[in-house]
Design a protein that fits this description.
- By secondary structure, this protein is α/β, with parallel strands linked by helices.
- Among the domains are: 43 residues, no CATH class; 180 residues, Rossmann fold, CATH 3.40.50.
- The chain contains 13 helices and 9 strands.
- The strands form 3 sheets. A 5-stranded parallel β-sheet has the order 5-4-1-8-9. A two-stranded antiparallel sheet has the order 2-3. It has a two-stranded antiparallel sheet with strand order 6-7.
- Strand 6 and strand 7 form a beta hairpin.
- The protein is elongated and about 135 Å long.
- The protein starts with a helix and ends with a helix.
- The relative contact order is 0.07.
- Component of the TIM23 complex.
- Keywords: Membrane, Mitochondrion, Mitochondrion inner membrane, Protein transport, Transit peptide, Translocation, Transmembrane, Transmembrane helix, Transport.
- Essential component of the TIM23 complex, a complex that mediates the translocation of transit peptide-containing proteins across the mitochondrial inner membrane.
- Its main location: mitochondrion.
- Belongs to the TIM50 family.
């Protein structure tokens, strides 16, 4: 009974709440419908084009009047204040310009007070310590080089530039640095290593140039490799000062494409054109080889004096001039031989040979051996032994024998060096394969 009564009471309360809420909602709707209306938005009047243009002109006149008034006020204030002086700005200018001018004066003029003061305090010596080569003797003495017998005379020295002389270097994003060898460089090094002490001198850092030199000279034709730490830095240029080379300058010849690099000893330079890898027909090294071989074979004691007659020419022009002189000399010798004491008759009047000439030096088939073939040429006559002609012949023969002996010993040294290098490479390859 008690539970039924409680349920009834709860139902009555719920119905009363619903009816009360509905009354409140109806009252709110009534108040909103009967309340005052919202104020209406005023209607904007239309403006014609003429009125808009007039208003725009008025605003411009007003702005120009304001600007002119401000300018007049600032001008009067400036006149009343007088010229201004910014001491801090002028101080900064003086602190930068004056020391720069003094340092420049000391660099340009070695006798200036600033240069003398720099030498007194030791600043010049400290700077030159980094500008000059890292050691006094860039290459060791000849008698201190390993594997060189003491009885071998010192050959002349050939200094070769690397970049743009022996190789051409290019860079791209895909492959990085790539190096192209100049045509004929392998034969050039192989030939001249028999006549010269070859030095490769590069102004690049050794970490950059050393791998290029190693891939270029795989057979060890070159004896010394010099890099940027061996240059003399002057006015922004890494110069190759040959006076630090520890060799007589009268026995040194240089191949380089940059004359500024040899400004201390320009008389030792044979200038070559920079190599372009697109030029596959380049023959500079091949054409200059005969002159370099002749300089070493003839044993010239003053190589700069020999090169002085080709002053102003590059390697190709020197090769052309050298070939022209050789041809002229041959023609002159032929003319002298034709007009000699033994040529009483012209060669054109001689009868044709009965047998074709034997170019190989052996007797032709069907031809009997003569006493000359068995015994050899007749000994020189008394006329040939005496006089100026005999002295010249003996001197030439002695010089040829001395050169043969010298070059034979030098070739033995180079062959031994190449064999050691090849053996070392084979050992390294075997170690890599075993690892």
């Amino acid at each position: 009974m008690m539970s039924l009564n409680s349920l009834r009471v709860a139902g009555l309360v719920a119905n009363a709440g619903k009816s009360h809420c509905s009354k409140l909602i109806n009252n709110a709707r009534h108040l909103s419908s009967s309340g005052p209306a919202a104020p209406a938005r005023p209607v904007r009047q239309a403006v014609t084009k003429e009125e808009r243009a007039a208003r725009r002109a008025a605003r411009k006149e007003q702005a120009s009047a304001v600007i002119s008034n401000k300018g007049a006020v600032s001008g009067e204030a400036a006149k009343s204040a007088g010229p201004s002086f910014d001491a801090s700005r002028m101080g900064w200018y003086a602190a930068v310009i004056i020391p720069t001018a003094l340092i420049g004066w000391g660099i340009v003029d070695d006798d200036s007070p600033m240069a003398q003061l720099s030498r007194m305090v030791g600043l010049t010596d400290a700077i030159e310590e980094y500008a000059v080569p890292s050691r006094v003797k860039l290459i060791p003495d000849w008698n201190q080089i390993p594997n060189i017998p003491p009885n071998i005379p010192q050959p002349p020295t050939l200094v070769l530039d690397l970049e743009n002389t022996l190789v051409c270097s290019t860079w791209d994003r895909k492959y990085g640095w790539r190096h192209a060898k100049r045509p004929g460089v392998d034969k050039f090094l192989a030939t001249l290593s028999q006549y010269y002490e070859i030095v490769i001198f590069s102004p690049s850092q050794d970490g950059v140039a050393a791998p290029v030199v190693a891939s270029l000279d795989t057979k060890g034709y070159t004896m010394h490799h010099l890099y940027r730490d061996s240059t003399n830095y002057q006015n922004g240029v890494h110069c190759k000062d040959l006076s630090w080379l520890n060799r007589s300058l009268r026995k040194v010849v240089v191949l380089d494409d940059d004359p500024e690099a040899l400004k201390f000893q320009p008389e030792n330079l044979i200038r070559v054109k920079p190599y372009d890898k697109a030029d596959t027909e380049d023959t500079t090294l091949e054409r200059i080889t005969p002159l370099l071989v002749e300089i070493s074979r003839e044993g010239y004691e003053d190589i700069p004096g020999v090169l002085r007659q080709f002053e102003g020419m590059d390697a190709d022009e020197i090769a052309d001039e050298h070939e022209r002189r050789i041809n002229e000399l041959r023609q002159r010798q032929n003319q002298i031989s034709q007009r000699g004491l033994g040529s009483f008759a012209s060669k054109s009047n001689l009868p044709p040979p009965e047998l074709p000439p034997n170019l190989d030096g052996a007797p032709a088939s069907g031809q009997q051996l003569t006493s000359k073939d068995l015994v050899g040429s007749a000994p020189p006559t008394e006329t040939e032994k005496s006089g100026v002609i005999g002295w010249l012949q003996r001197r030439q023969q002695q010089q040829e024998e001395a050169n043969k002996e010298k070059f034979g010993l030098w070739n033995e040294v180079m062959m031994k060096k190449q064999a050691e290098r090849q053996k070392k490479m084979e050992e390294q390859l075997a170690q890599q394969q075993s690892a």
